[in-house]
Amino acid sequence: MSEFNESRRRFLMQSGLGVAGLTALPSLAKAMEGMGGMKHSADVEMPKLTPTKASPNFHPDVEIDLFAKPTTIPILDGSKTSILKYTAKLVKGPKETITDIPNSYLGSIIRLQKGQKVRINFYNGLSVPTVTHWHGLHVPQIMDGHPMYSIDSGEVRVYEFEVMNRASMNIYHTHQHGATAKQLYLGLVSAIIVNDSEEAALDLPSGEFEVPLVIQDKQFDSDNQLIYSSMMKNKMTGFTGDKILVNGFPNFKLDVASRAYRLRVMNGSTSRIYKLAWEDGMPITVIGVDGGLLEQPEVKPYIMLAPGERLDVWADFSGRNEGTELTLKSLAFAGVLPKMAEMKHRGALPVGSEYPICTIRVTKKVSETHKLPMQLSKFKHHEISDTTNSTNPLPIGISEAPMSMLINGRAYEFNNPLPFERVKLGSTQLIEIFHAHGNMTMDDNTKANEHEKHESGGEKKMGGMGMMGGGMMDLSMAHPIHLHGQSFEIASRSISGDTTAYDTVKDGFINSGLKDTVLIMPMERIKIIKPFHDFKGLFLYHCHNLEHEDMGMMREFSVE
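Below the sequence we write its predicted structure tokens.
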């Protein structure tokens, strides 16, 4: 925040809405009456708030009308497919702010600059309530797309915020409580690309040579209509389709020249995890992740990509002859599903099997060269010693049980944080994500400094409440954990037990750079360092296997 002067800092702080301010709002206070006995489940009721309006004191550099509405579009040969779609219209700002992908159900791509003030007028043209979350953007709570700000059919909600993020690829998608997975699956998702001066100085491939690749899996019926099953077996493992679509198209082919390209890759699936690799064995060169550019490129044999994660890939096709075809695949891997589910999950496109994602075709031979920069960026690093709780990390204990998906022994509860989920504004916290198998519980009196973990593999304790491994280990699966608000850094990853399955994915993680979503494998423990700066209020953290989120694997940090 050093680049912001004091008046801008005051503006940012005042744009947030603290928890105390929430209960002071008459509309919210009335909506919350009688809600004291909140259910510990995914069907928690949300308050109905009056949609925010445009502020006369906010003077945007960019203004966008964003519409969510049902439509039909050709995806497969034959009948058109009914989908939900975001469409953006530029009201004010640079003409390159909005780009549409022709004939795609994906929403308009929004391109912003760091430091811009942005107003987005969101129109709900659906027949059901919805809300839009700016996944990866650091914005005030009232602008973050928390499901408490859902709007009904026909209503309009105004978002206003300043772009504080460094150059990065982010996501905007629905965050309707209990219906996030289905609404996103039906189409409500697209990309926000932020640019800044540091990135511009690198002269990376741009324009037609910077290509978004949004990867999703879908399932269609005989009339080309999308199938989405909410059966419990699909919720427990996450719903998966049997066709891979890229940018909204099956059998996607990208025509390229024999030169370097920048591929902006997003996993837009609700639950499917990919192990991306080039078919001919060419390494994948990664120059950025969720929160923007790495400091230096990293070269990997393959990359694991979970729902909600993004990759910035340098793909150099120079030296390849015209007519060359190269396939981007998902390679075989193991361990992301429970053992029993892996045996039963044998559809047309099993999770962890090998299959093509898209085809790259060299259609033009050119002599142009573009050199990969060895120094990409610099950003402020946080060390564990910078955290306020360096010896006592905040726990995110994830657990699976029949018909339940929990964090710290609880399903989602609106505005009912545990004591350690209340964090001080301006602090930087050490957080540990781990698998808490069995009946882990935490009572309301649990203090963060009572958090104990025993690494022996026997009984683990938290706040004095026991949690046993035992048979629940068979339910353990991989979870992509997403934290709203500022990006975090991965401090460490560790694994215990039989690593046979883990060995099939271990070389595919990027642990440097800034992240907002991290994939945790069974028997793995991950420590992250996360700042809670600038804004007070309730900020969600949850599994980005969206079926799990809808089942209640979501909690809130109250920044106070």
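DSSP finds eight helices and 33 strands in the chain.
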